[in-house]
């Protein structure tokens, strides 16, 4: 079955879906995106993803390609046409097509909108039950990674470092201070059971899963502290874990060649993973069903 993509007003077989070679997304990485999980046919944190997309657009003075309602409608249609029950929706907005010149083109240039959907959500349970290895690598990205742009080459390079080390993720650090991971947010649990994650600054992408996990953790009675931590602290932590749209809550049991705590997934991470799963199982989204 061929995948159907939405491209600037048309639903097309993915093989026939193209963007213009002078699209600024292609030439300048002048585009933003979102990846949202579809779970039992419903979007996970739809409102949060749309809000973050709008924020990314605002931060770059980029026009919105469609109203929130229209965007939701198209996403739903792409999910429906691809028969996705558990998977992801990808939304990319580029500034649009204009003769190549660095400065932003006139406001009349229409943003391009591409939406695709994929089957398959989250890593397998067995991966989470065993816990994963991460490697550390310097965070060489620009200073506005809070904007979810398609300029992901440093993230791709970091993920490649992980892939070559047969690790699940790369933990990014600036002079030893962990910011996040290449495509997920990083967390640790201190010996007194406080859950710690980097504050939502320009140095990290403010994960939608991160926000939901903070809420779920607080509701469950955990103490959550938003502060930076170092690789050295993570190595001495009781637990380390990752969160993300395609990661959910993932226990980390090894950093570089050193084990975290006793080398098994921690109870807090496993508990949060289960609670996050329960949150997804309990989804009812009226905006989607409207
Ligand atoms: N940080 C980075 C760099 C990411 O690419 C992602 C995945 N989008 C995340 C964190 C996690 O964000 P979210 O929970 O919104 O998927």
Architecture overview:
There is one protein chain. The protein is α+β, with helices and mostly antiparallel strands and 290 residues long. It has two domains: 4-119, D-amino Acid Aminotransferase, Chain A, domain 1; 125-281, D-amino Acid Aminotransferase, subunit A, domain 2 (D-amino Acid Aminotransferase, Chain A, domain 2, Alpha-Beta Barrel). It has nine helices and 16 strands. It has helices at residues 24-28, 46-59, 68-81, 125-130, 153-164, 208-219, 231-236, 267-281, 286-289, and strands at 4-7, 10-13, 31-39, 42-43, 87-94, 112-119, 132-138, 169-174, 177-181, 185-189, 195-197, 224-226, 229-230, 239-244, 248-255, 258-259. Strands 7, 8, 9, 10, 11, 12, 13, 14, 15 and 16 form a ten-stranded mixed beta sheet that branches. A six-stranded antiparallel beta sheet has the order 2-1-6-5-3-4. A hairpin with a 2-residue loop joins strand 8 (169-174) and strand 9 (177-181). The longest helix is centred in the C-terminal third of the chain and has 15 residues, at 267-281. The radius of gyration is 19 Å and the shape is globular. The protein starts with a strand and ends with a helix. The mean pLDDT is 96. Bound molecules: 4'-deoxy-4'-aminopyridoxal-5'-phosphate (PMP). 4'-deoxy-4'-aminopyridoxal-5'-phosphate binds at residues 35, 155, 180, 183-185, 205, 207-210, 243-245.
């Amino acid at each position: 079955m061929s995948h159907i993509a939405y491209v600037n007003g048309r639903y097309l077989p993915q093989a026939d879906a193209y963007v213009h070679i002078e699209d600024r997304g292609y030439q300048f990485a002048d585009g933003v995106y979102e990846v949202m999980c579809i779970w039992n046919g419903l979007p996970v944190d739809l409102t949060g993803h749309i809000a973050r997309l709008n924020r990314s657009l605002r931060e770059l003075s980029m026009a919105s390609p469609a109203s929130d309602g229209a965007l939701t409608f198209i996403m739903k249609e792409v999910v429906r046409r691809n028969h996705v029950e558990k998977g992801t929706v990808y939304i990319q907005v580029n500034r649009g097509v204009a003769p190549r010149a660095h400065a932003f083109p006139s406001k009349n240039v229409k943003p391009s909108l591409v939406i695709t959907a994929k089957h398959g959500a989250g890593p397998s349970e067995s991966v989470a039950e065993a816990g994963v290895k991460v490697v550390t690598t310097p965070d060489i990205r620009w200073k506005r990674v809070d904007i979810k742009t398609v300029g992901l080459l440093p993230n791709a390079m970091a993920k490649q470092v992980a892939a070559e080390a047969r690790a699940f993720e790369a933990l990014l650090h600036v002079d030893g201070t962990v910011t996040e991971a290449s495509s997920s947010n990083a967390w640790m649990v201190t010996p007194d059971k406080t859950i710690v994650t980097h504050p939502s600054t320009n140095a990290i992408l403010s994960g939608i899963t991160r926000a939901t996990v903070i809420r779920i953790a607080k509701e469950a009675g955990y103490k959550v502290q938003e502060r930076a931590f170092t690789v050295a602290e993570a190595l001495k932590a009781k637990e380390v874990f990752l969160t993300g749209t395609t990661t959910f809550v993932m226990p980390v049991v090894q950093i570089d060649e050193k084990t975290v705590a006793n080398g098994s997934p921690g109870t807090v991470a496993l508990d949060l993973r289960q609670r996050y799963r329960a949150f997804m199982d309990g989804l009812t989204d009226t905006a989607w069903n409207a």
